[in-house]
């Protein structure tokens, strides 16, 4: 691991100011919260920061607060705390389960919601320092001609990574918002607008600019008549990332679908929402044929590579299963 300096900050304002200062001085600085992912990247010399700005020393960024309209979750709240929180279990459908499916118990005890959302890709070409891939500033996405069994089937190109977060697709299905602090002040945006495709920038996964950090996630309570479903398929029934995951929220009224949200994980460089499938479902009665058609619509435009065509049929089946579970 390259030598670095750790700086403990005591407030969000101090963190933002310091990150901006280091950026202006052309210093390579990264933020650390739980550290379960970042430290491994540093050990593998995939990232080599000069400075780590430690957010764990900021008081008051770990909380789950009940409001009239929903729950507010501080960025330093651990995945275990989210999994075990009664309000999350009772009021946010499947979010507790999604948190409990992430990584291993040890990582969930340290990993934070902010860190989980801001994860870097788990593509083996990105994670190996010997490959100067497109995501690290190189000229080539090695997955195009290499082993691409776990890579993107939707939204790929020129990079074909998949976003590794378990919580992000679930939060988007729940219509969550994310609060960001930066040099220009604070802003709150829909979670789905936080992530960016490689066509926008092949080296970044989200919209965070120098000096900006995530401080809070806001999750509204689902509307009356809503049911949710979350499922994750992985290669091993142990700590592993999703091959495909699905998060759905269906609001029903009078036997028909009033509204629906369908979000996939493990299939694209960002959590992949399926708005055409959602539009198709509105006003329909949910049955086998409707759920199957919604799955087909959601995967329209899929472009699998030589090793990952299986993801298309798997994603369709998961969507069908998720929707029928909401009947």
Description:
There is one protein chain. With 327 residues, the protein is of the alpha+beta class. The chain has a domain of 99 residues: Enolase-like, domain 1 (2-Layer Sandwich), CATH 3.30.390.50. The protein is 28% helix and 21% strand. It contains twelve helices and twelve strands. The longest helix is centred in the last third of the chain and has 15 residues. The model has no long low-confidence stretch (mean pLDDT 96).
Write the layout of secondary structure elements.
Blueprint: E1 5-8, H1 12-24, E2 29-32, H2 38-43, E3 51-54, E4 64-66, E5 70-74, H3 79-84, H4 86-91, H5 95-101, H6 105-110, H7 113-117, H8 124-127, H9 167-173, E6 177-182, E7 185-190, E8 213-220, E9 226-233, E10 244-253, E11 256-265, E12 272-273, H10 275-281, H11 288-298, H12 310-324
Parallel strand pairs: 1-3, 2-3
Antiparallel strand pairs: 4-5, 5-8, 6-7, 6-8, 9-10, 10-11, 11-12
Helix pairs in contact: 10-11, 11-12
């Amino acid at each position: 691991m390259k030598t670095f300096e750790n700086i403990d900050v005591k407030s969000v304002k101090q963190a933002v100011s310091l990150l901006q200062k280091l950026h202006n001085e052309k210093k390579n600085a990264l933020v650390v919260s739980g550290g379960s992912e970042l430290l491994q990247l540093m050990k593998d010399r995939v990232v080599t920061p000069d400075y780590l700005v430690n957010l764990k020393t900021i008081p008051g960024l770990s909380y789950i607060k009940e409001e009239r309209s929903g729950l507010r979750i501080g960025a330093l709240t651990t995945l275990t705390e989210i999994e075990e929180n009664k309000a999350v279990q009772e009021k946010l459908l499947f979010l507790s389960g999604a948190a409990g499916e992430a990584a291993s118990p040890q990582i969930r005890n340290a990993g934070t919601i902010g860190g989980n959302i801001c994860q870097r890709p788990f593509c083996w070409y990105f994670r190996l320092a010997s490959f100067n891939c497109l995501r690290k500033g190189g000229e080539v996405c090695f997955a195009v001609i290499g082993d691409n069994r776990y890579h993107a089937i939707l939204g790929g190109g020129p990079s074909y990574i998949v976003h590794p977060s378990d919580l992000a697709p679930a939060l988007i299905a729940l219509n969550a918002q994310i609060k960001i602090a930066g040099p220009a002040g604070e802003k709150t945006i829909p979670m789905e607008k936080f992530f960016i495709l490689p066509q926008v920038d092949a080296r970044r996964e989200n919209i965070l600019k120098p000096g900006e950090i995530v401080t809070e996630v806001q999750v509204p309570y689902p509307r009356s008549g809503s049911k949710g479903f979350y499922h994750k398929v992985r290669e091993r029934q142990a700590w592993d990332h999703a091959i495909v995951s699905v998060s759905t929220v269906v609001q029903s009224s009078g036997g028909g679908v009033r509204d629906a949200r369908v979000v996939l994980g493990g299939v694209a460089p960002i959590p992949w929402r399926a708005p055409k499938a959602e539009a198709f479902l509105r006003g329909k009665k949910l049955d086998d044929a409707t759920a199957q058609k919604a799955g087909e619509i959601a995967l329209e435009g899929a472009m699998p590579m030589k090793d990952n065509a299986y993801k298309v049929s798997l994603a369709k089946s998961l969507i069908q299963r998720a929707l029928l579970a909401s009947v």
